[in-house]
Design goal:
- The structure is a single chain.
- The protein is of the alpha+beta class.
- It has one domain.
- It has four helices and 15 strands.
- Strands 9, 10, 11, 13 and 14 form a five-stranded antiparallel beta sheet that branches.
- The longest helix has 14 residues.
- The chain is globular, with a radius of gyration of 38 Å.
């Protein structure tokens, strides 16, 4: 015996048939955080279509990513060189340009010509140090020349002429953790800007007085020194020379040449880069820091040199 089909059952079956042929669209919003876009969030939309119970994969549209720019300091070595070529103690440097490059000094085109015919000394020492014969650098010092006292006395023997001149060289790049140049202090921050000029004092010091210095008695040397500059106050630029300076002396006496009180424009260049053009360090040089090296060459003329 068949059961009767009620009108309610027929209506239900009809609704189910219609539902199976209806297309339903499903949409989902997604958000992606980009860690390189300074916190910017970009959105994408994912949509899918379901037909008669079958799912068709929707198309995903990715949001665009914009990389943020990074500004700020760079870590350089103590002389303004990039860290992949120089690895001493480093210091973060603000976004400045080490400007105010010096161009003072003589061109001295004959410096190399007479390099091997007159006494020439390459000198590389740290700020605050005195250079002279007989000093004994530690084993960490890898550059520079230190003659003995007797070697220097032999060079400076003269009657009337005892003259010196200097050629300034670029600031050296010390090796991290090493003294490198005579007297350099390690473990300190490096210079913001490399120097572009140097100023120093030089003098012919009697051998007996210098021997007291070597013995630790610390005699006063100021009476023998004179300042080497370009125009009375300005330093001499890297790659350029001083004029010849006559050093006071007594004919036939024993002398050594001593260099001290080295100053540079490191601080002035940094302050100029910051816009402080009237800073106290400009235009005159300030004393080179103990963590920094200086480099220059000295030539000597006497009655017996072939120049």
């Amino acid at each position: 015996m068949m059961k009767k089909t009620t009108p309610l059952l027929l209506l239900t079956l009809a609704l189910l048939a219609v539902g199976c042929n209806t297309k339903t669209t499903k949409s989902t919003n997604t958000s992606t955080y980009n860690p390189f876009s300074n916190g910017t969030t970009t959105s994408g939309t994912t949509s899918g279509t379901t037909t008669s119970g079958t799912t068709t994969s929707g198309t995903t549209t990715s949001g665009s990513t914009t990389s943020g720019s990074t500004t700020g300091g760079i870590n350089t070595g103590g002389t303004g060189y990039w860290p992949w070529t120089y690895t001493p103690e480093t210091k973060p440097i603000p976004s400045i340009v080490c400007s105010n490059l010096s161009t003072t000094g003589e061109t001295c085109s004959d410096f190399d010509t007479v390099y091997s015919t007159i006494p020439t000394y390459p000198i590389i020492i740290a700020g605050g140090q005195t250079w002279g014969p007989g000093l004994n650098p530690s084993g960490n010092v890898s550059v520079g020349v230190f003659p003995t006292v007797n070697e220097m006395v032999a060079v400076t023997q003269t009657d009337t002429k005892l003259r010196v001149r200097f050629r300034m060289l670029a600031q050296p790049k010390p090796t991290v953790g090493k003294e490198y140049c005579y007297g350099r202090a390690t473990g300190q921050n490096a210079d913001y800007c490399p120097y572009s000029k140097l100023k120093l004092q030089v003098g012919a010091v009697p051998k007996a007085v210098w021997q007291q210095y070597l013995n630790g008695n610390n005699p006063y040397l100021g009476n023998y020194m004179r300042t080497i500059t370009h125009d009375g106050s300005n330093g001499i630029s890297s790659g350029r020379c001083s004029v010849w300076y006559d050093l006071p002396h007594t004919a036939g006496a024993d002398y050594v040449i001593v260099v001290k009180e080295i100053s540079s424009d490191n601080e002035c260049r940094y302050q100029t880069g910051l816009g402080n053009t009237s800073h106290v360090s400009c235009p005159n040089n300030t004393v080179v820091r103990a963590a920094s090296c200086t480099s220059f060459e000295m030539q000597i003329q006497t009655d017996y040199t072939n120049y």
